[in-house]
Every structure is written in structure tokens, then in C-alpha cells.
Known about the structure:
The structure is a homodimer.
Chain A: E1 11-21, E2 26-33, E3 42-43, E4 46-48, H1 55-67, E5 73-80, E6 91-99, E7 113-120, H2 132-149, H3 163-173, H4 182-191, E8 195-201, E9 211-215, H5 217-225
Parallel strand pairs in A: 1-6
Antiparallel strand pairs in A: 1-2, 1-4, 2-3, 2-7, 5-6, 8-9
Chain A binds a DNA duplex through helix 4.
Amino acid sequence: xxxxxxxxxxxxxxxxxxxxxxxxxxxxxxxxxxxxxxxxxxxxxxxxxxxxxxxxxxxxxxxxxxxxxxxxxxxxxxxxxxxxxxxxxxxxxxxxxxxxxxxxxxxxxxxxxxxxxxxxxxxxxxxxxxxxxxxxxxxxxxxxxxxxxxxxxxxxxxxxxxxxxxxxxxxxxxxxxxxxxxxxxxxxxxxxxxxxxxxxxxxxxxxxxxxxxxxxxxxxxxxxxxxxxxxx
Amino acid sequence: xxxxxxxxxxxxxxxxxxxxxxxxxxxxxxxxxxxxxxxxxxxxxxxxxxxxxxxxxxxxxxxxxxxxxxxxxxxxxxxxxxxxxxxxxxxxxxxxxxxxxxxxxxxxxxxxxxxxxxxxxxxxxxxxxxxxxxxxxxxxxxxxxxxxxxxxxxxxxxxxxxxxxxxxxxxxxxxxxxxxxxxxxxxxxxxxxxxxxxxxxxxxxxxxxxxxxxxxxxxxxxxxxxxxxxxx
DNA sequence: GCAAAAGTGTTCTCGGTACACCCATGC
DNA sequence: GCATGGGTGTACCGAGAACACTTTTGC
Lengths: 232, 232
């Protein structure tokens, strides 16, 4: 065996931390493993990357197989490559996280899972398979940092939402102890000029109906190019 | 060949974007490749990861072999895994960047390089080997973002430095068009209370000698835990 | 004494924060 | 009519930005 060949004995996988928001708290989608190793344990959805598959494509595939969704926010975080992280050989994994609109999610557990279930992102059991607790912590931290400075929170909400829903989302992501001030939050987010008011209103609620808003991505990008910095 | 075995035919490497600062501008250390593929081209220093080697350890090894330095600031950025990025097989690479004190650097080109040389970080030739231009751009962007919010700039300066040197460093990293205001910069950085004044002064300069300062890492960490946020 | 960089304060503006009451709807 | 969340404005404070001259040294 040539020296070079001895290097080509490794594999890599992708693992995907899928975040959702149910109106109250931030959730993560975990699967119960249907195959060894760690059969029966909770884990992040993931899979080995095919030899002719790009990393990003593999992450999209995992997401698509599990949730049926495509074209959603998906971002690589980092590689985890401890020598002994996988019991059957040298496998490094590339961690991604994605943000989905939880209402779009239909349960269609992929072949690699017995079942999939939403868990509280801020309070996940500590004995996930492999090094998945590490990975989850890192991704959660990254989400918290990034949500503060880029308008990615909207990926977790339905296209039309109320300002209160938006505020609750940010309170959940940033887990602020006492919550944010309603008037200041509205002043700030509206001042950015990246939301558009819909003509519709909330319906069927037992109180004054709220206005619905949409995030205007083009507007945001135009303003961002001119120096607007999203910052909460 | 079993299905699983077909996955274990890949390799991975680390590539290291080594930044330095010479008092005027931000630099990157590139090597001229001594072996195929891309022999003779400029490239980032990097190497295949040994089967029993952690990723971080591999990145440290590359840095050590090239510069003789260890225990320096080193951080993973992300994985690059396009299928065709390496001509001899499926190789994904994990990008790191490190920050070194350029004065400590002694030229000791490792076996994988013909020669190593500092290049202007903000103006690198566009035909580096592999996807190294991509990698470099990503790391440079990451450095710029991170240097604003965490006190990592000090890693690029000698232990004792003047406030003007520190300011020039930040002007180089952030490439601010008109530079920063001297009085405001000093006010802000001193107000953070993370620098300590040395008893010594600059010597041998043809003008009023400047006071020397050191970064106090313990102090910074204590304050950071109490909510200080470094921000320039 | 002159060139070259070090060092130093004040004013103004704007964004962040704290804070309490009336409004529209369903039942 | 009452319970529920929706919606709104003002006053204060502190941080950021703009701005120019005196001081110390080497030659």
C-alpha cells in the first residue's frame, strides 16, 4: 500500500441541528437511532457523505429526507474530528444547522431514524449519541450569536407574523431573563424599515387582532449594502 | 466490498491561514508548493491529517513545521468539501487560521514547501492552488469580523506595544478608509481597562518616546465574565 | 530649532432604556 | 362588561463622533 493510499481510509458525515420555533420556545429536532452504533439513543440527524456528493448537498439531503423540506436556511458550523469520536472507524463530521418553519414540518422519519421528535433546545438530554451534545451546544451558541446580528430569525416564523410573535421568538433565542421591552422592541425593529405591514390582520383571537407583517428580504439587502446593521 | 467500506475511501486535510502584522499591513504566509499537484503554485500551508491524529493537532503540526511556533492562537473556520476540489481523490479540507507575532517567525520551510513568503492579506494573487483563494477569503472575512468583537488582535503584536501600534493594527485589519480617530481610539481602549502600562518606554526613536502597554488577559476574562463586551 | 510622533478634553448628537395607560375584540 | 393581548410616546442618560494644539525627543 502506498503512503498516499493509507490516508484514503476515512469517511465523513454531516450532522444537522434543525431548529424550529413553536410560538413559545426554541426546539431541536432529534431522532432516535434505528441502527448501530448507539441504536435507540437520541441523536442529531446525519448521514455519511457519498463519495461524489458535495458537503452542502449532503446536508440538504439529510434535511430533505427527514422533513420533506428543501430550500431552507442551512449553514455550516464546523468540523468535529476527534480521532475516537466514531466507534467503527475514522469519521469526521461536519455540523450544520438549519432553521425551519415548524408548521411546514411533516413527520416522515427517514430510514436512518426510528422516530423523530422535537426537544427543547435549551434543555436537551445530555447523553446523545457520539459527540452530539458537543455539536448541539456549539450550534446553539452560534445561532444565538448570529441571530443578534443578522435577520435570520424570520426563517423560523411563518411568512406573516405579528410583532409579538417576533418578540417572543427573540426572547426564546436569546433567552433574556426578564424579556424585552415591548415598546422598545417595536420601535427598534420598525425603525430598521425591513418589515412590511400586510393588509390582513390576525383573526379568531379573543382580543384585539394584531397586524401581520412580512420580512422584506430585498429591502434588507439593499439597506445592508448601504451600511444598515441588524442588531438586537 | 461492503456498502460501508465504499465510504471509507476519502481523506482529509487541514489548511492554515497564518496571519501576521509587520507594523504597516496585515500579511498572510503562503508557500510555494514543492510537489504535485499544483507544483510551483502558491498555496496555503496544509497537509493530510494522519489517521490517528485529531484535526486540531494536525493544524498545530502544520503550523509548527512551517514556523517553529507552537502555543499560538489557532482557530477552525470551516470545512471545504466540493467533490472536485482535489485532483487526486476525494479530499475535504478543514480551514484554520492562526495569528502569530511576526517577529517570532523564523523561516524554516517544511518539507511540503519550496519556500514560504509573506503576502499582503488584502491583495493576494488570485490563482492560488486548489480552492485556496476561497479559503483565504473566508478566513480573512472571519478575522475581520472576530477582531471587532474579541481581543484577538493582541496575538499579532509583540507582548509590549504602543497605543499607536495597536491602532495601526486595527486600521489594517478593519481596513477603515480614513483611519480611526486617535483620541477616541485611546479613550475607548483604555476605558476597557484591559491594558496595563509598563514602566518602560519606547527607546531610540527620533521623536517623543511612547509608553508601552501590555494586554492583561486575566483582567479581560474577569471583566468579560461580568459583561464587558470588547467592541471596536 | 526643526521634524516627527506622543499625548490630551470638550461639545454635540443620537440611540438605548425605562416606564403606564387606552384600545379592539370574543365571549 | 370583562378578560385578553394589541398598540402607543416621552424623558433621561451615556456612548460615539468630531475636532486642534502642546509636549518630548533625536538630530
